Amino acid sequence: MAHIHLRKPWHARGLQPTPESVYLGRREFLAGTVAGLGGLAIGGCQPDATAQTSPSADRADQGRALTSETADLYPARRNPKYTLDRPITDQTAVERYNNFYEFTEQKDRVWKLVDKFQTRPWTVEVAGLVAKPRTYDIDDLIRKLPLEERLYRHRCVETWAMAVPWTGFPLKALIDAVEPDSSTKFVRFVSFKRPDEAPNQKGESWYPWPYFEALRMDEAVNELTLIATGLYGRELPKQNGAPIRLVTPWKYGFKSIKSILRIEFTADQPPTFWNQLVPNEYDFLANVNPEVPHPRWSQASEWMIDGTQLDRRPTQLYNGYGDYVASLYSA
Fold first, then answer.
1. Per-residue confidence (pLDDT) for residue 331, from 0 to 100
2. Low-confidence ranges of the chain (pLDDT < 50)
3. Domain encompassing residue 86
4. How far apart are CA 103 and CA 39, in angstroms?
5. Does pTM surpass 0.85?
6. Total tally of structural domains belonging to the chain
7. Cα angle vertex 306, ends 163, 1, to 5°?
C-alpha cells in the first residue's frame, strides 16, 4: 500500500476550516448588503495540568523584529498560575497559520507578506475618558510595565485552536496608569491603516479599515486580559500582531485585535469590526460557547492547528476559563 502523507494545515490551503468559496461568498454578501463599508484582523483555555516550557527559539523566524530596543527583555519570567491541559502548539504552525486580513485572507500566506510592514517606530495613543492621556513609544511602554509569560489556549471562531506561550502585561496595569474616569464603561482599540505596507488593505479597500474592537470595562480589567508583546520567548512576529496586541483567551480570536495604535476609553458601547459588518454572525461579546453555533457551522468541537481537522475535541464554555470570567456574565 502506498504511503499517504497528510500535509499540515499551515501547508495546505485546502485544509482551512472555512473554504475559500465561503470567504468569497461572505465578501460578495457583505459588499452587497453593507454598501460603502468595508475591514479585518481576526486573531482567539482553563489553566490546569503541569506547566510546560516553551520550545526553543533558535532560528530566525520570518516576520519577527530582532533589532528593537526591547529584544533583551525576552524570554520573560513565566507565571506558573496560567498553565495548560494540552501540549504547546508547534511554533512553526502558530507563526505560519494566521488570520490577518490586512495582508491576505489566505492563512498560510500571511507570514510571506509582512516584510514591508514597519513595527518600529511605533506609538500607542491612550485617550478618551482618562485623567492621564498620553502617547507611548512602544519600547518605552514595554519597559515601563513588567512582562511575564503566560500559557493560554486560543480559540478561533472558525473552530481551529492553539495553545501558546504569550509574553506581555495585564491590560489592567496600563488602565491603572492612565486613571479612567468613573463614567468609563468600555475600552476601544484601533489598529493600523497602511495600504502600502498591508496589501489587502489596498486590494480589499471596501472593508472599513483600520480594524477596531472593544471590551467592556469589567472585561478589560479582568486578570486574564493580556497585552501581548511576545510569543515563544521572543518578540511577536509581525504576522502574529507585532508589536502589541490584545489577548482575551475566553473569547473567539477576532476579539484579540492585532497591531494596536490607539486605546480609547468611552462611556458608550462602541461598534466593533465584525459585529458591525455581520451582526447576525459575530456578536459584541464573542465568548466561546459550544452551545451557540455560528450560523454556518457548529461550535461544539475544535481542532488544533498542528494536528488535523479529523482530530477534534469538545469545545469548552469560555474556552475553559469559566472560573475567571463566568461571573461577568451572570444574570
1. 59
2. 1-60
3. 13-53+63-329
4. 11
5. no
6. 1
7. 155
